[in-house]
Design brief:
This protein has 2 helices and 6 strands; from the N terminus they run βββαβββα. It is of the alpha+beta class and 99 residues long. The protein has one domain. The longest helix is centred in the middle third of the chain and has 10 residues. It is globular and about 40 Å long. The C terminus is likely disordered.
Length: 99
Amino acid sequence: MSELTAVCTPNSYPHEDGRVEHGYQLNVLDQDLVVVATVDLPDWESFQQEEAGQRLADAGFALQAGSDSADAEGWSPAGLGYMAPVVRAKAAERLTSSN
């Protein structure tokens, strides 16, 4: 199974209060850093962790179970954005059903 990473970054530099004007973009990258999926989030003024997970699911991906990221949802701060290891949703279903 290939390594996939979701990266959620703002489309503009944040103001001092952390708010952004042009929303966010969620990209899923493969191990060669090729974008395999993109989800535009133009209405976001700040990163929304739970919603990001749902938008990944809508695009056919799931946060990778058992990741060692800093928080329970799998997202870790990365520069101005956030990143998380992900798998294709079908792969996540196979892993869950085999346990």
